[in-house]
Amino acid sequence: MRNTLTFTAIAATALIGAAAAGAPQSSAVSPELKEAVAASTRTPAATARDKYRHPAETLAFFGVKPTDTVVELWPGGGWYTEILAPYLKKGRGTLWAAAPWPNGIKGVQTLRQKDSTTYGEIAFAAFPVWNEGEPKIRDNSVDVVLTFRNVHNWRMGYQREDKADYSPEAFKQIFAMLKPGGTLGIEDHRLPENADAERERTSGYIKVSTIKKLAADAGFVLAGESEINANPKDTADWPKGVWTLPPSYALKDADRAKYEAIGESDRMTLKFRKPAS
User: Fold this and answer.
1) Tens digit of pLDDT for each residue in 201-254?
2) What are the tens digits of pLDDT across the range 47-102?
3) For 92-118, b where at least 16 C-beta lie within 10 A, e where not — what string?
4) How far is Cα 31 from Cα 52, in angstroms, rounded to an integer?
């Protein structure tokens, strides 16, 4: 009996230590979220990437509820929008698509034109807001802000003619739109910590420490880390940066089988909180 109790105590201590060290976290996926991921309105090309992007587990980790007001930053063609829109619509939540104005929202506008029943209630705003008169999300009005594989773009100065790094301003604007206690969820391509920081400006990868500093400087506190989207096969040193890997295949047919076997990039999944007071 004593040996059993001793083993149990050691195991419990190990689990506590792992959690304190930032071990991978998982969250239960609700039936509503499972239903949204399985929605027939999603395109086949999108669902084929679920094995790399783990949308149900990722959104569950971020704690997105169907009643929330959610901002999806830079949604591109709407990969996550196809899940978030029906999920929030059923729960009577609200979804905003926010991107460089006005061209950045064209992908989601196309979704709405194809299927107004599913996507007709999505609201649109500019992000970042650079110019007077651009539609802005009201301060302290949002429960959750999500951005998938975009912080590296801000770091690279993407969508700016001067290519200046505007990531600090982006985090400042995110902090402003969130309610006190609100959540910021980030997924991005992970650059190894020992890599040259200059590669953040060219490779499409970014260091976890860089994002943590950007968030902390804006006023956020770290609320969790997950390895849901990790890929240890990705060494992050490819000839065309992250775009060498699927789904981009920047080298086209050159070594395509090799990169297909590696799969999509190694990604960090980080959750931050705006302090409640």
Assistant:
1) 999 999 999 999 999 999 999 999 999 999 999 999 999 999 999 999 999 999
2) 999 999 999 999 999 999 999 999 999 999 999 999 999 999 999 999 999 999 99
3) ebbbbbbbbbeebbebbeebbeeeeeb
4) 21
Give this prediction's pTM. Answer: 0.90
Residue in 29, 56, 73, 55 with CA at minimum distance from that of residue 178: 73
For residues 49 and 79, what is the distance between their CA atoms, to the nearest angstrom?
Answer: 10
Tell me the C-alpha to C-alpha distance, in Å, between residue 68 and each of 114, 129, 221, 264.
25, 23, 20, 29
Residue 226: helix, strand or coil by DSSP?
Answer: strand
As given in the structure block, the two tokens for residue 188 are 């991005």
- Work out the mean pLDDT of the chain and round it to a whole number: 92
Query: At 115, is the secondary structure helix, strand, or coil?
Result: coil
Fold of the domain built from segment(s) 31-273: Rossmann fold (3.40.50)
**3-class SS at 93?**
coil
| Residue 27: pLDDT band with limits 50, 70, 90 | confident
Return the axis-axis angle of helices 81-90 and 106-114, rounded to nearest 10°: 60
Q: Where are the domains of the chain?
A: 31-273
Structure tokens at 274: 């705006």
Residue entry with tokens 């309610």: 179
